[in-house]
Every structure is written in C-alpha cells, then in structure tokens.
Amino acid sequence: MITVAKERNGVGLANDVEPGIAFGSCPLPIMNHKEIVMAHGSGGKLTQQLIQKMVLPQFKNELLNPLHDGAMFSINGAKLAFSTDSFVVNPIFFPGGDIGDLAINGTVNDLAMCGARPLYLSAAFILEEGFPMPEFWRVIQSMQRAAHTAGISLVTGDTKVVDRGKGDKIFINTSGIGIIEPGVNIHPRRAEVGDKIIINGPMAVHGIAIMSVREGLEFETEIASDTAPLNGLVQAMLAAARDIHVLRDPTRGGITSTLSEIAEQAKVGIRLEESCIPISEEVKGACEILGLDPLYVANEGKLLAFVKPREADLLLSAMRAYPLGREAAIIGEVVNEHPGYVTMKTRVGGTRVVDMLSGEQLPRIC
After folding, report:
1. Which terminal CB of the chain, N or C, has fewer other CB atoms within 10 Å?
2. Cβ partners under 8 Å of residue 361, min gap 6
3. Which domains does the chain have, with CATH numbers?
C-alpha cells in the first residue's frame, strides 16, 4: 500500500522517516530511494509515493488534492478542466504514431476524462542540439494533424535547446483547457458499489507497439499504437448516459494501476473478470515473449468508464456505435469487498489480487 504523508506543525512528513533526523521548517521527506529511479515515472507505486510524500504536502489545495487527470474549477459560472503532461517516449517514431500526436492526444484525453470538451492547448519543446530538422518538422506536422482531428487549437508555447548529449532528441510538454457542460460530474471518488466498468477496446496495444520496435520483434500483423483522441467518443457516451461516474485513461501502469488508484480514492473494491478483458492474440503473444503482464502495459487510446448497472448496456451500445469503441466490453464491477483493492476472477475460476505496478516494466513509454 502507498504510505500517505502525515503532517507535523503544518509540514508534510513521510511515515517512514528514519530515526535521529533533525527536522527544520521544511524537511526533505525520507524515502526508500535516495535518488530518482526509472520506476518513479512508471505511474505505479513509486510515482504515487513521489507525489504523496514530496509534491502534494507542499502544494496541497482543493483542486490538486483529488489527483485526477485534470483540475476542475468554475470561473464566472463556467466549469473548466485544466491538465498538463510531458512526453519523453523512446523511440520518438513508432508504429501507429509518434511523440507529436501522442502529446496532443494525451492532453486531449486527460481533459476528456474530466468530461470536458477540449478547447485550447499549449506546447513546450525541449530540443537537443543536433536533433535533425526534418525529424522536428515531421513531429510538428503530426501534432498539427492530431490537433485538427481533435478539434483543438494550439495557442501558445515555448522552445528551449540543451547541449548535445544533455537531452534525448526531443521532449514535449503540453497543457490544455476545456469546458465541462452542465450536468456532467465525473470524478474518481464517485465510483460506487454496483457500478459496471467498461473499456472501449483491447488493452496493452501502445506499450507493445513501442516495445516491439525496441526489441526488433516482427509479427505477422504489425502491432500499431492505439494513440487517438477520445473526446469525440466521450461526447457520444455523455449523450447516451449523462451520469457517468468515473472516466480514466489507463496510460502508464496499465489498467490495474489505474483501477487501483480509483479503488483507493473511492474507498471501494473492484472486481475484474479476466475472461471479459479484451486483448488481441498478437499483443498476448508479444507479452509472453517479453515476459510482461498485459494488465500493466500502457495504453494511449483506451478509457475506463464507471456507470450504474441500469445504464451499462445503453452506454455500451453507444460506445460500440463509435469507431473508437467498436470492441467495448464490460470487464468488471465495483464491490463492497476489499475496499481499496482490485481483485480479478481468473479464467480457471480462482481469485487473485492485482495490485498497482511497483516497478518499471516499460520505461519512457509516453
């Protein structure tokens, strides 16, 4: 389980501080790691530990504390969502996409997971000296196409260049803002017992697409990233079932890390049905070759939706009528048992706990 930081005299302190440490007015929380490791970027336990012990205690406020895909707030009666993300994927070009459309789609999707209609984006580029100009142009063109597809405008940005050898080609940060229509109330803490959990298609595609390039794997059918803007799908879903409780895109850490976060935040149990979780044979085979658990592999064009049982079939039909939801499936439900945990009924009839990712399966995946 993640250890949540406590307070002492208004200062955030970690539960596992070492004895004999003298505390000043703003102490550095003592963690199990004395340096940043790759797993701190996995979206799993170490990422959560980094946020909970070091970042959140210093900046906590009512908008940040929910740790949703974006902050939601109102200005002059308009409800808005605001999100930011950074992209350090390696390689920068991969089957089905590149770092450019990934950056646009990633922030568009974070806004969509708040139930917002994305409006405007910023983009900041950190470029390494020596990065080929034709490759940068290819990334820019890809971003333009992705923004056009998503119906969002890039309105501001920044560019920095670092010395040769001090970066890795290109890093991109994007921030976005969108508007939430009246009556939409999507939040991870709204998950309630009985909710059905729906995914819009096969999992683990993005992570395996990138890993197959890194490892030089070739398959009879190319595995291409599922990166895509999900805002159109979300609007179709909201038109069919306005009271969707939770939306999340299971990127880093895969579907189980994402569901573990929701279970912990909402103080509910989640039970998955392994036989109902869609996965292609190519991805399943690649995971077996690479020794990866597909439940923890990153996705980029997938979402998880929580909805009341009476609306689940209606929502499922609406999703399947949309191109990005044709293979949507109900994969589990919210239960009373084991609050804060995710369990899974296996194909052979047993039950096992599926915990949040604790290490780094696939570094620099997004």
Report:
1. N
2. 42, 207, 292, 293, 296, 297
3. 6-59 (no CATH), 71-180 (3.30.1330.10), 188-353 (3.90.650.10)
